[in-house]
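Internal ticket - ligand job 423, zinc ion:
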Amino acid sequence: MSAAQERTIEQAFESARHTYRNHGVDVEAALRRLESIPISMHCWQGDDVAGFEGGSLSDGGILATGAYPGRARDGDELRADIDKALNLIPGQHRVNLHAIYAEPTGTRPDRDTLAPEHFSRWIDWAVERGLGLDFNPTFFSHPMLRDGFTLASRDEGVRRFWIDHGRACRRIAQHMGSVLGTPCINNIWIPDGFKDTPADRWTPRKLLRESLDAILEQPMDRAHMRDAVESKLFGIGSESYVVGSAEFYLGYAVQRNILLCLDSGHFHPTESVADKLSSVLMQLDGALLHVSRPVRWDSDHVVTLDEQVRAIAGEVVGGHCLDRVHIGLDFFDASINRIAAWIIGMRSMLKALLEALLMPRETLVAMEAEGDYTGRLALLEECRTLPLGAVWDYYCLRNSVPPGLAWLQDVRQYEKDVLGKRS
Ligand code: RNT
Ligand code: ZN
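stdout (structure tokens):
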């Protein structure tokens, strides 16, 4: 970046700051706030949710499509790719792992006997970089996923295996959180469900409740780990019935006082996750977000600055619940450069938060309170064309990452030097 380009960005920022100030918005305060918001970047975009277990079994109704070259094949490659991405994203963030990314030395333990030491390489790496970690048990892509069922299976042996996996993962999360000094969120998502019309919707849900109770039995220190549960509407192979539905987990999270995970691809297309936040947070301490981009279905496209993401950011910021809502991303696109996918998704989420922080919220709320809905609509519409891009570029500059599209060149170079050499 030349000195002249930097000056142009600074000038545009000065002018933007002026514009926002005229709307009563303190841009400096917004930038400081944005700097303090960590986004949990999901490791699984880097390898198409394959993991390191070596099996080729991709199961459980989630599917990465595409065959773009350069997928990370082991922990060293995945960490190098994550490093590359994080270097091009402003701010200090977190990394979200799954149990399939264990790196045991010697014989590989099965998932029910995983332990913290199997993640020591991830933990050392996170310590070195000052990164927080989040975690997920992996209830898919495994032979013990029987006929589409895990924790809700009618087979006691199957349930037992997955309960032990769930327990092991909570211990791993607790360890990660205590070493890193920031609570590790351990999110449970299971694929269980029926392809076709069930005759009995009750038994699997009873079994799921029992299994979850067994997993959560052991009390853990909330300063080190937090439990979350993630619902789903349908999946590939569970089109007619999903055991862990939205209502099931909402009730369960309230009853157990744990976090509810809202994935933006897991609801009917006209439902709004943004709207759900103020409802669920009436009863719950906190929520976890899996920000995703469903295209016609739960397709897990790369997050972009679309209406849904902007609405979510608007609610989290406007509802003053940044400390209660943990923001994570969840998408996996194997048809484009995977590092670019992370960067586009993370930067879009941050732009959405910045936009929300720059809203003349007090004015809007005052208009609403006075019944001035005309003014509210007019101002909201005006906000769409405020100079967000100028503030964003300046934010990148001051956080020493490339503004605008300048990061892409860097990623293309890495593709040439590193990704292109992977077979
Ligand atoms: C699946 C859920 C779940 C997974 C990840 C890999 O529909 O969204 O969160 O995407 O755990
Ligand atoms: Zn998800």
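Auto-summary: The mean pLDDT is 97. The domain at 38-357 is CATH 3.20.20.150 (TIM Barrel).
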